[in-house]
Design goal:
This protein is an alpha+beta fold. It contains 18 helices and 47 strands.
């Protein structure tokens, strides 16, 4: 007899069409198995040989959270390179290491949650480091390059499956799960959606992650835009993964739904396919899905649709095809090529902001003082991997220039803490045999759960004490470091130990505040920010507690500026390396409060400059600062540059590499230049380089070189469907260098507010001395369009457009004008279509809110006060005789034509019920022809629509 061979199920046959394979596997899964797939941690189905699967491997600038990996510059640094080819290669390296790490640790996932395409609209956003640019075009170009690298170039199989974060209009950490971004239609289409759209349309995106916030009063996790926009941009089955804990927020913090079953059903119907909630424990979420199904809030078709999208990603990742997957056997990890790429990326990210008097590059025989709190640091952030290699600015300069030419002063304040209750000093016990530990070295699915060390002895007090290195990071947030380099930290048992290699963690346990003591003039309470408790001293050691706080005297042994001034005075050149720690004062969950450099670092900068006029400021930071460069001959900026940051910076300073990074966002001169953090109206608030009318400290696209470039031969031609622009760039200096040529356009006489200028193309090129390159850009005429709120569509307005080429948004070298044919913007057809309240041209004192929980917009006065809406060019034709408004709540709408009296007052005297119960109010009015309409809203009223009849 011949043994029968078990037939291969169709879902495992690579020769079948993808849709048929998905259908086959889907019908083999039970309902419970399909529901289980909707949690982030989808369990294995052993009877089918289907492995467990999880969404969400962080990989923003290297593989994060899973232990050592190659660490590239922060995303904002990659944005500063303006180099798509480089960023694509970084994506390739990162995804290759994901595959290599997964081969030895199946906790590593292939569905990568990266990149972040939120626009860097506001420089105080705590997560500025995660984005690429304030400009949608540049952001989409860099994001597209990174996703193409992550995806790979095989026509069928994907190396990793990238998910874009965070949908949508998300630029604040303050109350991020309860605040609503009021986004008018023009800003929505021309700004916030655009970065996502162009990246998705490029074809290398597997999905998106909705953000924690609300947009126009509706949580992003039930956003109709997922169906109305996102899923229409591509034929791919995009996988929408919730952010961590966000499904529960719909009830717990946002109170948008009464029950979790309602909330879960609404988000699944809106398009969320995978629920990231309750960590690895899936029963809570699957129970909610089952409950919603049992109550008729969901159908099996809703569940199958979401499972199908997840399976589509898993098939594309080659999960069911064994050796047919060309990426299955990848082992490249920490290769020489990856190390070289990390250095190249760090070099290309350096931006030279100012350079007068030839201070840079450094003279070959210069004696160099390297000072500052970041001078001997290689900082990581929440989305970094663990360092395999480490290079600080000081180490880089030692290696490049020789230790005999470089002196160093960190600039920390050397202090002792004296307990006034006993007169004893805080002391760090010896722990000679304690092993060195690096946070996250072993990897963790959720690094927020990593606990502090308890294997080291707690701090004590004695008659001598330990001299500690104190840093004030701004806003009174302090760190203390022991002589062995470990930071004071608080573990779960509440004791203080010198135990942390760096500040870090989801809740940082290494930061403190000194608060004045009312009972002792020179005494302070020491508050631990992580727990909110005060430090106390007991017989068993120093710990935090709810009672008996100790009063300490802070005794400064040596101010940091003394050491800085001493080494600065003896050097030919001083490099002050300043910036931020990515875990302190500006990070996920915490926005910055201002643009200023922290006072401690200002002290060091002033001391260095007073001791030596040849002082350069080197900023290493995740965001812009407002610094005064007037007395400084040179200023550079780079984001935290990853493992090769110091080597790269030293090579740029020494002139081995000419700097060619460019600012990906505007650097403002003062806090007064900034709009409110929650003001998302980039048009009305005149935000970003697109609309800002003040004088920036350093403009968008700015960056200097060690050589000079000349621009010439600008030619611009308009065809039937494209604008073609060419110009020549020539290296007129003596050094080979990169230049980033930038192309902008501007409507000369627009009918609506348009950008001052808008980036439509750029090219990073390398030129030898005397060499030239002709650059040609063929741009679709759609780059000149704007969103016409009067008709709800994109519109190409006829007329003159200025074409500008140059080295930054303000350093324009060439300009010409082209004339474009198009259709004039017609008046609003209000008699037939009325006015949707959110389609205003201008507003004051209002915000956009949700018309219903499912879809639509309404407008309400901010905080229930009063507000105004302006609608231009409303065509009443031969005339109207009445106006009617759809409104909810209670309040008044006053209707008038600009320049005339109030024609109608429509009052909702009693509340209509809940926020979503609308009634229609009518009044008689007359109007003929085209007019601008003015509406004044008073009270907690939601206006959805205004109609007219005649």
């Amino acid at each position: 007899m011949t043994a029968q061979t078990t037939p291969t199920p169709p879902f495992r046959d690579p020769q079948l069409p993808l849709a048929k394979r998905i259908d086959d596997l889907l019908q083999r899964l039970t309902l419970d198995e399909r529901i289980a797939f909707l949690h982030q941690f989808a369990p294995a189905v052993d009877r089918l040989g289907v492995a467990a699967f999880r969404t969400g491997q962080e990989a923003l600038h290297g593989v994060a959270w899973m232990g050592p990996a190659t660490v590239f510059p922060q995303a904002v640094g990659l944005g500063a390179t303006w180099n798509e080819d480089l960023v694509r290669r970084v994506g390739e390296a990162v995804s290759t290491e994901v595959r290599a790490m997964r081969a030895r640790d199946d906790r590593v996932g292939l569905n990568v949650w990266s990149p972040t395409v939120n626009l860097l609209r506001h420089p105080l956003w705590g997560r500025n480091e995660e984005g690429y640019s304030e400009d949608a075009k540049l952001t989409s170009a860099i994001a597209t390059a990174y996703t193409r690298g992550l995806r790979g170039d095989h026509p069928t199989y994907w190396r990793t499956a990238p998910v874009l974060k965070h949908w949508l209009a998300h630029n604040n950490e303050t109350d991020r799960s309860t605040t609503s971004s009021s986004v008018r239609p023009r800003v929505l289409h021309e700004y916030d959606l655009r970065a996502f759209r162009e990246t998705v349309e490029a074809g290398a995106v597997a999905g998106v992650m909705p953000a924690y916030n609300l947009v126009n009063g509706r949580p992003n996790h039930v956003s109709p835009y997922l169906a109305e926009h996102l899923r229409r941009w591509t034929a791919e089955d995009l996988l929408v993964c919730s952010d961590a804990g966000a499904p529960s927020n719909l009830v717990d913090s946002e109170h948008y739904y009464a029950t979790h079953e309602e909330a879960t059903a609404a988000s699944l119907r809106a398009g969320v396919d995978s629920f990231t909630d309750h960590g690895t424990e899936s029963s809570t979420m699957t129970g909610r899905i089952r409950g919603a199904l049992d109550k008729g809030l969901l159908t099996e078709e809703d569940i199958d649709r979401a499972v199908r999208r997840q399976l589509s990603v898993r098939f594309r990742l080659g999960e069911f095809d064994g050796d047919a997957d060309p990426y299955a056997a990848l082992t490249d990890f920490d290769t020489p090529a990856h190390r070289a790429l990390a250095q190249e990326a760090a070099e290309q990210a350096v931006v030279l902001l100012k350079n007068e008097g030839g201070l840079l590059p450094l003279a070959a025989d210069a004696r160099i003082a390297v000072v500052g709190l970041l001078a001997d640091e290689c900082k990581l952030d929440w989305y970094s991997g663990t360092l395999l290699h480490r290079s600080t600015p000081l180490e880089g300069l030692y290696d490049r220039c020789g230790a005999e030419r470089v002196t160093f002063a960190e600039g920390v304040d050397r202090v002792r803490l004296r307990a006034l209750s006993t007169g004893a000093f805080v002391s760090v016990p010896e722990a000679a045999e304690a092993a060195d530990e690096v946070r996250g070295a072993e990897g963790a699915l959720d690094p927020a759960l990593l606990a502090g060390r308890t294997d080291l002895p707690p701090l004590t007090t004695d008659t001598v004490g330990t001299e500690l290195a104190l840093v004030d990071w701004g806003g009174g947030v302090l760190t203390f470091r022991a002589p062995d380099g470990r930071y004071l930290s608080v573990a779960e048992d509440g004791y203080l130990r010198a135990s942390a290699d760096q500040p870090g963690g989801w809740i940082v346990q290494e930061t403190f505040r000194l608060e004045p003591s009312g009972s002792h003039g020179n005494g302070h309470l020491l508050k631990h920010t992580g727990t909110g408790q005060y430090v106390s001293v007991g017989t068993d050691g120093v710990k935090v507690a709810d009672e008996n706080p100790e009063i300490f005297e802070l005794m400064v042994v040596q101010p940091g500026e003394e050491a800085v001034a001493r080494v600065a005075a003896e050097a030919d050149v001083v490099l002050v390396v300043a910036g931020n720690d990515p875990y302190i004062n500006g990070r996920e969950t915490e926005d910055r409060t201002g643009l200023a450099l922290p006072a401690h670092q200002e002290r060091l900068l002033r001391a260095a400059r007073a001791a030596n006029p040849n002082t350069a400021l080197v900023l290493v930071s995740a965001y812009p600062y407002a610094v005064d460069p007037a007395d400084l001959p040179a200023v550079l900026w780079t984001a935290h540059g990853g493992q090769a940051a110091g080597t790269a910076l030293a090579r740029v300073l020494a002139g081995d590499v000419s700097p060619a990074g460019r600012l990906p966002q505007t650097w403002y001169a003062a806090d007064a230049d900034l709009p409110g953090l929650l003001d998302y109206d980039v048009i009305g608030a005149r935000q970003t380089y697109l609309y800002f009318e003040g004088t920036p400290l350093f403009p968008f696209g700015h960056g200097l070189s060690y050589t000079e470039f000349a621009y010439g031969n600008l030619v611009a031609q308009v065809g039937d469907d494209a604008l073609t622009v060419s110009f020549t760039v020539t290296n007129t200096g003596a050094a080979a260098a990169d230049e980033v040529a930038q192309l902008y356009v501007r409507a000369e006489d627009p009918s609506v507010p348009r950008p001052r200028r808008e980036l439509v193309g750029h090219r990073r090129i390398t030129l030898a001395p005397g060499a030239s390159s002709e650059l040609t850009f063929r741009l679709p005429l759609s780059v000149l369009e704007f969103w016409d709120v009067a008709h709800g569509t994109w519109h190409l307005e006829p007329g003159a457009y200025e074409v500008l080429a140059g080295a930054s948004s303000e350093d324009i070298r060439l300009r010409t004008t082209v004339t474009v044919d198009g259709e004039p913007v017609g008046p609003r057809p209000v008699v037939t279509h009325g006015l949707d309240a959110a389609d205003f041209d201008e507003q004051r004192g209002t915000e956009i809110v949700d018309r219903t929980k499912e879809s639509g917009d309404a407008v309400t006065p901010t905080d229930g006060g009063s507000g105004e809406l302006l609608f231009r060019n409303c065509d009443f034709g031969a005339g109207i005789s009445s106006v009617e408004v759809e409104a909810a709540g209670e309040g008044t709408v006053e209707f008038s034509l600009i320049g005339g009296p109030v024609l109608a007052t429509l009052t909702q005297e009693r509340p209509t019920g809940d926020l979503y119960t609308y009634s229609t109010l009518r009044a008689g009015v007359t109007a003929v022809g085209v007019h601008d309409v003015h509406l004044k809203l008073r009270g907690p009223l939601r206006l959805a629509h205004v109609g007219f009849s005649g």
